[in-house]
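Pasting two entries for a bug report.
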Amino acid sequence: MMNRRGFVISLGAALALPHTAAAQPARKVYKIGSLSQATAEVGDRYTDAFLQGLRDAGYIEGQHFVLERRYAEGRLDRLPELAAELVALKVDLIFARSSHAVRAARDATSTIPIIAADLESDPIAMGFVATLARPGGNVTGIFLDLPEVSAKHVQFLVDVVPKLSRVAVLGDPTVNASHFRAVQEAALIRAVRVQALQVTNEPDVDRALELVIKERGSALIVLSSSFMFLQRIKIAAAAIRNRLVAIALWREFVEVGGLMSYGADLLSLHRQCAAYVDKVLQGSKPGELPVERPATFQFVLNLKTAKALGLTIPQSLLLRADHVIK
């Protein structure tokens, strides 16, 4: 039987426990900003992959961090304003998705870490980083600075259409300059004439497609930019209607009816970016984290579209495909 003295001591200890717990410093809940040119409907698919990457690293949304999502809904002119909003919120880092988003974030802050997911830019030429091994500033992340990927698109088209003589190329002159050059060089080797069409807005896309159709083009390369990604449904539909053999960087182009894609797996890339976020939140400086390239590439074919175009896909290409949509 506990005596009175023992009871008082035990009671005092018990009462002290909540006070002691309350006195412990609260764990910081990080504030992560996400900046994208995309619409929320499109962007959330990739945001979910990014969040999965954070969960894999041990971060639980609402417990370890909150995510401030900002989508420009396809309007480039909104990105600076949205980047400024994130800076005003004093986020711990900004996850910028696309070259335009990276530029807007970098212009808005030189101190907040910026993790980039950029499939178009040469980060050194764009002034985002000093070197790939040691970026030196507040920007690092995943960049696909490989114009030769666009050159490979020429070869894929020739594999499907051996007598190809002309190819139209749609791209953003701001971020796709090196990709235009790579296509020109690859096409020259194969005696294929290039029709370069620079587009920066939706009316440009409409005019470019009309020109390709008017000149009876037979093949189309869609260069990568966040704007072109948002136009993929329109471009794929026009390609099928007008019997254009088309290829782009993203699997998502094939999923909406495009014939072929070769490039980075966007979902995998977003999960890959989460590893950078983990390192920064653990104290690493972005300027000391080397720039990486996408870890996963894939070649995707749409056989339903091939049938609609009256094409027979060579067995060699079918064997190389990572995914075939039937």
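Entry 2 (this is the one that rendered wrong in the viewer):
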Amino acid sequence: MLCVMTPRLVALLLVGLLLSCGGGETPPTHAKPNFVVLLVDDWGWSDAGCLGSDLYQTPNIDALAAEGMRFTNGYAACTVCSPTRAALMTGKYPGRTNVTDFIRGHQRPYAPLSVPDWTMKIEQRHTTLAEALKADGYRTGIVGKWHLEPTGEPDEDDYRPELHGFDVNVGGNEWGAPATYWYPYAKEGSPRVMGPLPPGKEGDYLTEVLTAEALKILDGWGPEPFLLYFPFYTVHTPIEAKPDLEARFDPLVQDGMRHTDPAYAAMLASLDDSIGQVRRKLEELGVADHTVILLAGDNGGLDNGGQQDPAGGRPTENSPLRAGKGSAYEGGVRTPTIVYWPGVTQPGSISPEPVITIDLYPTVLEIAGAEGDPQHNAEVDGRSLVPLLRDPSATLDREALYWHYPHYHSGGSTPHSAVRAGDWRLVEFYEDNHVELYNLAADPGERRDLAAEMPEQAQKLRSMLHSWRESVDAQDPSPNPNADPAKHQQ
């Protein structure tokens, strides 16, 4: 009988030959990309070499920006950390989740306003990024800062990372910063204990320990796609660096420089080295070409406009942006944002489109081809950045970005909400309901308030802000019956 070798038959024979040569196993395929999400604590918008610093040396971050896309109008979802972390995990504005302050926040019993009964945890009703990817076959791990569960409450374990979709958790618990970066990361009289962490020894530096654990996790994962979420404790206070690195930067500081703290520079150098080690591990494992890396900050740098913060001074400088972490201004929410998608992002590309933390959730899901939970997705506020990653000149179908912070902070903030629409930014302050209006294109430092000169523009943005707050059911502060101006100022 004559056997005709059709193209289909030839293909089948070739597949069989490949299977027999491979011991009956097909080589792993990489239909789904991996994700490494890097979140830096208190990272100022100019705190890297590629971002214009005159002191900080960050060759690995610079290389990532040179290969990927840098967003010059990148924003954190809040002026402090926990709300931004919840926003990254859910894709929802803090005003919608009611996680509106760092956990547990500042207590201001004599302030003019009482803060709302806000949510001090990431609730189980949300589908986190880890849960959405895990349901799609991803392995998931967190290494570093969680800070999305209550402190000192009996049910605090109900909100740990392992119950929000993470297979592995190293170093993530209820605390937002170590008492010290040196083993055992605690000080006498301080309740802050980092964990869960591996056994350590004197001289261990937290950033290096977490990096080593991240590399072990990557080594242990097989061919399945993965999400590694690495939220650094660095560069949050206390400002403690490795002595050899600090000594390297100390002689580089000169009068007239923007950045002048050698210890902070050294902490950034440790951060940068960690990012470099993770990238080299991806290369070693042969997965770098299908691993998307997303790098951002959780709020602005600790620069309080010259006011010394008792928690750690003023280690960085955000100029020309106004103020820093914990403020109502650009310095409190503008952060570095870099995305590298191998084979897609154009090397060294820059996008001026305003983007924000909530955008990372839908971006990762779209790149992964993961559906997520439909009920949760219906409330996702973020926009996928995929169109921008494919085309730096593209824009997003979005009218404005919003912030809601009904709290007080030592960085200078009083309860407020804000909106950015185009080049315009308006801040509404709750204590006296006054607004401030700035044109960021002409005045990125927010020095000239245009609200009185342009009342129609101010009213337009104020109306947008009020409509948005109503749409997400944002919680507002209320008059404080115990208000005492004298005691409040103490």
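Dev reply: Rendering is fixed now. As a check, the viewer should reflect this: Confidence is low (pLDDT under 50) at residues 1-29, 306-312.
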